Amino acid sequence: MRIAVIGAGIVGVTTAYELALAGHEVTVFDRCASVASEASFANAGIVAPGYVSPWAAPGMPWKVLRHLLGRDAPVRLQGLAAWRHLPWLWRWWRACRPAVHAANRAAMLRLARFSFERLQELTLALRLDYEQQRGLLVLLRSDRELAQARGGLKLLAELGVGFELLDAERTRAIEPALHAGTALRAAIHLPNDGVGNCRQFAHLLKAQAQRLGAGFRLGAEVLRVEAGARPAVVTAGGSDSFDGVVLCTGAESNGLLRPLGLRLPLAAVYGYSLTAPLRHIDGAADTAPRAALMDERHKVAISRLGQRVRVAGSAELGGSPDHLHVPALRTLYRVLDDWFPGAVHKQKAQHWKGARPMLPDGPPVLGASGAAGVWLNLGHGSSGWALACGSARVLAEQISGRDAALDMRGLGIDRLR
Length: 417
Fold this sequence. Notes:
This protein is an alpha/beta fold and 417 residues long. The protein folds into 2 domains: 160 residues, 3-Layer(bba) Sandwich (FAD/NAD(P)-binding domain), CATH 3.50.50; 243 residues, D-Amino Acid Oxidase, Chain A, domain 2 (2-Layer Sandwich). The chain contains 10 helices and 19 strands.
């Protein structure tokens, strides 16, 4: 079949590859001049199926309330625009109930583990090198954080996710550059999780998709999609007909869905990152991380990507893509200094802000949209890199008329109606 994929982020590129591998004629459309130029450009890089979880979780409403009361929190409601998302916030609040959260987390973990397996298959089969490293440490600063983490550890054990709870001494043996002056109560070690350069992987897989015959029309903004037996993609250059159209369009998907009579409760939740080159001092001990870490208190990730360190976090609802909120960046620098002071050249740091397409309950929406010929692969939130390969594989199988090799409960559009 002739299939159009709209969106060339990590989800769109992996979808194009899987469809081309299945024998379809694929054309990818994106408004940017290169793949992985928006939400996939400078994310944390962490691939952690064991740590994937909905943002809608028990206790999260209190963290938002703490911010509103002026206390430090990893969640920010930015400006009056945040209050336009009140219907989304209401659905998100309801999804924070323990039973709902447990079902959504289970759905995300199933997809994450399937996705990780597919990522490893592609990495080995195609011999891809994207600055990947194994190992993730979730750092717990206090007894309270350790107590709060135990419920999640129980679920990981039930799902068969490999992990180990370490004391401070064993944690520092794995990451010896951790600053001794920062309080560390314990850490959760996920040895099979890790880090990789998402944008680099997207470029490598784009090349593989092109070898299979996929075409990329970059710099071509899609104005609208017309559903039907032969759905059409309309750009400024005209209209092209296909046998199917897949939307991998992230936070702005409703602009294309609304004319089709569809609307998803999507919100752009902005994340921040800084990326800086390592500081090398002759004769001095290494002061940088070896792989990937997560500061549980601040929900900030620290990742080693080759000769650079990336620090990423924050969740900003109601902001704008062009405005960098200084306190959010300040938190990233503070967490970096807490754990790895002096590790990077701060004056050479690059700052980035990206819109994560988040549905209120957490999981993405995969499969048929309900509009003839239009399929969906979007709403991955902050877990797009961790879920992309599995989501693409599932969707390619569905479009090809085969059963998905995954329990799809909680991942379809029906749950959002």
